[in-house]
Specification:
α1 crosses α4, α2 packs antiparallel against α3 and α6 runs antiparallel to α7. By secondary structure, the protein is mainly alpha-helical. Helix content is 77%, strand content 0%. The protein is built from 9 helices and no strands.
Length: 220
């Protein structure tokens, strides 16, 4: 059974509250100096391991090796603290519950942060944005006053590109380019445009749209 996001947030906040109580109890049990040494040793051991895992695996379930190392060090210090709290009996349990309730209240008040993208997702986003701007530049170039002969050449090139098997991104750009060409064909030579459509829209529309000797003037 899957828990709702609110229940998961409450459970995580309560766990952090109990963990914080255990860390504070561990510091009281071991003393500041011993606790600092334990935290430093565990952090120094876990950080390079987490960094190596994050480097070789793009699908690692964590974002920052520093956070993993810090959490591991806190967990190691938390264990003896929780044991000490159990020895305190009802007093230790009450302290853990109070701090858990405080963390839950803070979590409910603070707005939820947007999840951070992984390195692979950020790379794909940057690539998509680059491709978008490239496509926009291509489309913008077609909005300049090209001649109808040049537009016919563009249409023939896109037909060849589609026949050779274009990818999803290229197909999207080609569709927009062809839409612009169709608008220009109809605007500049509506009669030839309709004759071309009636003929089944061949790959090369120049024979229908370009003027032939003896024809009247056509807007190019």
């Amino acid at each position: 059974m899957r828990l709702s996001p609110v229940v998961r947030r409450i459970a995580i906040a309560a766990g952090l509250g109990v963990g914080t109580t255990g860390v504070l109890s561990g510091i009281l049990l071991l003393g500041p100096l011993a606790s600092s040494i334990l935290l430093a040793v565990v952090f120094a051991v876990v950080w390079p391991l987490a960094a190596v895992i994050r480097q070789v695996n793009d699908d690692a379930p964590f974002q920052s090796p520093v956070i993993v190392a810090a959490a591991s060090a806190a967990a190691v210090l938390c264990l003896p603290g929780l044991v000490r709290m159990l020895a305190w009996g009802a007093l230790g349990l009450a302290a853990a519950l109070v701090l858990a309730a405080v963390f839950v209240l803070i979590d409910l008040v603070v707005p939820e942060r947007r999840p951070r993208l992984s390195r692979q997702q950020r790379t794909l986003t940057r690539m998509s944005e680059t491709h978008f701007f490239e496509d926009e530049a291509l489309i913008a170039s077609l909005k300049c006053p090209l001649s109808i002969e040049e537009l016919c050449g563009v249409w023939a090139e896109t037909a060849t590109q589609l026949a050779q098997g274009a990818g999803p991104r290229d197909r999207q750009a080609v569709a927009e380019v062809r839409r612009i060409c169709l608008d220009e064909f109809e605007r500049r030579n509506p009669d030839g445009f309709h004759r071309w459509l009636d003929a089944g829209a061949p790959a090369n529309p120049s024979s229908y749209l370009l003027p032939t000797p003896g024809d009247g003037p056509t807007t190019l």
